[in-house]
From TrEMBL:
Protein name, per record: C4-type zinc ribbon domain-containing protein
Superkingdom assignment: Bacteria
Annotated PANTHER family: PHOSPHOLIPASE C-BETA-2-RELATED, SCAVENGER RECEPTOR CLASS A MEMBER 3
Annotated organism of origin: Helicobacter brantae
Coiled coil: 83-159
Pfam family, one: Zn_ribbon_9
Keyword vocabulary terms for this entry: Coiled coil
Domain C4-type zinc ribbon: from-to ranges: 198-230
Length: 235
């Protein structure tokens, strides 16, 4: 096989390896990102629970204020009862008193209900905090793993990049430029094997003349349809 073609195949394989590193890195970080997202969701939950709590607290305040007002009214009623002159007045005061007491009873039952809600919100907050803690513990573990995996990939990346630059340095620079031009659009399918007399990039059948050229391997041959560099895969 032509020396230049051999070098082109090698450099394209190295480029492919380098490009495969990115998805690998993304894959490694995926687990960590999903945990970070879970943590964020839980933190949002706590914020909304705190808001609920605040609104329950305001409701409680209102109940207590209402009870205080009703208490004052009861006092007022009992004072008036001492000065009552007619049966009719007494009856009216009795009705008013009964109404105030009913309202106090209702407010007290509201307080009990709201305190129950507050308790359950508190419980939810505690549970959510506990799950945040466990997520954070997972994050610490995953971060350790990710760091060591990324370190390995970085080393791998350096080795391959070194190999590539050594190879590119000794290559004919015109051929390198030619290859880079194709790579701009064909990416990792810039140098492709011919399979069943068809281009391995565009999959269109190549004519006998071009196929013979590729089989000889004396020259750098490109696909007449798409322009990718062609070769015959040995073995
Ligand atoms: Zn082609």
């Amino acid at each position: 096989m032509n020396k230049y073609l051999k070098e082109l195949i090698d450099v394209s394989l190295l480029d492919r390896e380098i490009d495969l590193m990115e998805p690998k890195i993304k894959q490694i970080k995926k687990g960590l990102n999903s945990k970070l997202y879970q943590q964020e969701v839980k933190e949002q939950e706590i914020l909304s629970l705190e808001e609920q709590k605040e609104s329950h607290r305001l409701q409680l305040l209102k109940c207590n204020e209402t009870i205080a007002t009703l208490g004052a009214r009861l006092e007022d009623i009992s004072k008036k009862m001492g000065e009552v002159k007619t049966e009719k007045e007494l009856k009216a005061l009795n009705i008013e008193e009964e109404l105030a007491r009913e309202q106090i009873t209702y407010q007290n039952s509201e307080i009990t209900r709201i305190e129950g809600l507050l308790n359950s919100v508190d419980e939810k907050i505690e549970q959510t905090k506990a799950s945040i803690q466990s997520i954070q513990a997972d994050i610490v573990e995953i971060e350790k793993e990710v760091a060591s995996e990324l370190e390995e990939i970085k080393k791998e990346q350096e080795v391959i990049s070194k190999k590539k630059s050594l190879l590119v340095d000794k290559m004919d620079q015109k051929i390198v430029v030619f290859y880079e031009k194709i790579r701009k659009w064909a990416k990792n399918t810039s140098v492709v094997p011919v399979y069943k007399q068809a281009c391995g990039g565009c999959f269109i059948k190549i004519n006998d003349r071009v196929y013979t050229e590729v089989l000889k391997g004396d020259d750098i041959t490109t696909c007449p349809h798409c322009g990718r560099i062609l070769y015959i895969q040995e073995d």
